Every structure is written in C-alpha cells, then in structure tokens.
C-alpha cells in the first residue's frame, strides 16, 4: 500500500514540476494531497491513542482513506 502512495506522490510531484498538468490532474493531485495529509494525521493520532474506542474510530478512518486512495489509483 505504501508503494502505491509513494508512486502517486511522485507522479503528482513530476506533473507539478513540469507544469503540464490538466485541470483534472490538478484536482486529482489536490485530492490525493488532502488524503495523504489526513492519513498522516490519523497515523500520528493512532500512535498516541490509548482508548480502545478511539483507536477503533481512527483505524476505521485510516481504512477508509486507504480504500479511497486505492480506488483513486485504480481509476487513474
């Protein structure tokens, strides 16, 4: 899963650097970046979470984000 995210991020960076992205690519890149930041934040919170209920909520959120990123990758 990490390889997929790293590959998506590298592609987004390359397109931004070349400034050849289409409006759709910029939207997709922005959505990916938002998901990536949310994923990072949730992983940080999950590391510190001690309450089992809170951990469950965070794990579900992380799964949802991972699923969305994988779906976006499959549709690209």
Distance between the termini: 16 Å
Our Rg estimate from Cα atoms comes to 14 Å
Give the overall shape, derived from the CA principal axes: elongated
Quaternary state reads single chain
Q: Which series of helices and strands comes N to C?
A: HHH
Mean pLDDT: 85
Q: What percent of the residues sit in helical stretches (DSSP H or I)?
A: over 70%
**Percentage of β-strand residues:** under 5%
Instruction: Provide the structure class.
Output: mainly alpha
User: How many helix segments?
Assistant: 3
The parts where pLDDT drops under 50 for at least 5 residues are none
Structural account:
The structure is a single chain. This protein has 76 residues and is mostly helical. The protein has a domain at 24-76. The protein is built from 3 helices and no strands. It has helices spanning 2-18, 23-48, 52-75. Helix 1 (2-18) crosses helix 2. The chain is elongated, with a radius of gyration of 14 Å. The two termini are 16 Å apart.
Task: Give a quick precis of the structure.
The chain has 76 residues and is mainly α. It has 3 helices and no strands. It starts with a helix and ends with a helix.
Topology:
Elements: H1 2-18, H2 23-48, H3 52-75
Helix pairs in contact: 1-2, 2-3
């Amino acid at each position: 899963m990490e390889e997929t995210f790293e590959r998506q991020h590298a592609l987004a960076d390359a397109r931004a650097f070349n400034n050849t992205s289409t409006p759709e690519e910029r939207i997709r890149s922005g959505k990916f970046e938002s998901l990536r930041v949310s994923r990072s934040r949730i992983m940080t919170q999950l590391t510190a979470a001690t309450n089992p209920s809170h951990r469950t909520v965070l794990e579900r959120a992380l799964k949802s984000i991972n699923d969305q990123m994988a779906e976006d990758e499959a549709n690209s």
